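Journal club side-thread
Mid-discussion, someone asked how the predicted structure for our own chain would compare to the paper's figures. Pasting it here so we can look after the session.
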Amino acid sequence: MLTLKTFLKPFTVPPDAPEMHVAQIHALAKQAPLFYGVLWINVAILVYDHLDHCPPWLTYLPLLLFTIGCTTRGLHYHRLSRCALTGEVAYRQLQTLNRAVFAMFMAMTGWSIVLTHYGNAGTQMHVMFFMTFTMLASIFGLMHVRSAALCCATAIPVWGLYFLSIGNTTQQLIAGSFLVFSSAATYLIYVYHEVFFSLVKQHAELHRLGSENLRLANSDLLTNLPNRRSFFTHLDSALAESEGRALHVALIDLDGFKPVNDTYGHPAGDAVLCEIGRRLGSLAGPHCLVSRLGGDEFGIVLTGLDAEDGVAEFGRAVCAAVARPIVLAHGVVQVGCCVGLAGLGESGRNWARLIEHADYALYHAKAQFRGSAVVFSRELERRRDWRDRVQQALHQADFEREMRVVLQPLVDAEAGRIVGFEALARWTSPSLGGVGPGDFIPVAEGIGIVCRMTEILLVKALAAAAHWPPGIGLSFNLSSQDIAHPQIAARIAVLIRASGVSPARITFEVTETSLIQDFVKAKQTLDALKALGCTIALDDFGTGFSSLSYVHRLPIDRLKIDRSFISEVTENDTCRDVVRTVINLCRTLKLGCVVEGVETAEQVSVLTNLGCEMMQGFYFHPPMEAEAVDALLARTDRIDALLAAPARAA
């Protein structure tokens, strides 16, 4: 039984080669119409030669059957040539082909043998040559399908042995030659099958590698999300197909991701990115494309959200999904994000403009507060235009001439005296007029000129402080780019020595946001400033990520409670409790505590009862010009004189 199976195996179609099956059907379908056409012509000529020698049932009936068979099979394969076949369909087609070929050539052999009993020696030679050339042509025509070619070849021994047994010498010699040539053709069937199978395997492998390369070129290797290239390709296609449909783009930037990398290592950061990608994918749905654009940035192409409220709600849902705690192997972490969204309504059908609008909305969201989502609007477009004008003016600005510092008092409410001043930047542009620090400082950071601006402002602030009594301090703000600059501490040391102001009188204020950008470099800078003898204050305390971690890992001497907690401290119990907690924390850690944004006497009273001593705000005095500070300190350092002074904001 095993021997019989081995013998019959070449006559069957192997079920485990779907790529081979599809390739065989496609190759066969291309030449099937020609094959069946030539076969029908040869049959018709043979029938015509036997019309005068055979009864009609041996001529017209076979011709009719061949006509039906060749026409239906030829049309069938013509249709297959235009279809996308699966491996399963191709497998069934090949099995049908084997059965059809075997039945057709056995029937043709029997019909030809019967025809040899009619006619004369010439018609017998015609029959002999008909079978010889038809079988050989069929074998080579079916060469792509070994099993079908071998099924065709099964008729060769029957036909050859028949003429060897009954034919004359010439016919026997022709039959012998036919058998020898057929044997060689059968061998070639095996050789060609191996070659064709190898080519199909190579083509399938090349197709697989091409598909894999295409996937790699368009996928993010870490998250398996589409990458930046795929995002823009999809956006371009979506814009082309978006006639009459809503289309929006969301750009997402993570907050607090770098500390995860710094604290837990890059594997933990990779796990966070994968989890964020999974959450965004489940949130966006099947009709939206979520991509990782690079680093901790993601992008989403949104379809189907028509109303602006729905787009804003989606942005808030993204922020909420990202903000959920993430469980890692070494602990639980939490990051946030800001989202900028823009739609076709404001951007037209230009994808570059759409991305530009979404990017500006993201920039605006990050400037507001963490965890916010902003949809680009006409109002934002006006702000962007203003920002562009500010940027152009900054490029052309003479900082020495146009920049100045104003000084806001820092008071000890319990002692009733002024203890220092915070230097605040002011810029008067020849083309724009007075520009607020909230407008020009973020732009200066964006175009990389804030460090140069910082040095000029610090020189001016130190020059002002040089005229003050020794007990009056100076607070000065450093940006994220300042504290990340490798040479900033050395430059500041040179400027302080040149000014003659004692480093002990100088406090440098940094925000939690600035520390997040590059914690290692920030720590190096702050350590160097601390070594000079300067004081370090953490500004806007309580509004950033992992606030307490900075307190114990950095050389912090003072905390400044953000004004957002002070505005409602007289009415809101929660705000009052937060302030009390921070004040107690400072006492425990032996840190100074400053409350900024004090605007009313009621706030002063509540803060004093909570134990706060150092305060700053418009209640005591708005920022003052340097000359006004000199005049004030020349008379007294008491708060009473400060409160009695004209409250003109500078």
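Post-session note: The domain at 391-635 is CATH 3.20.20.450 (TIM Barrel).
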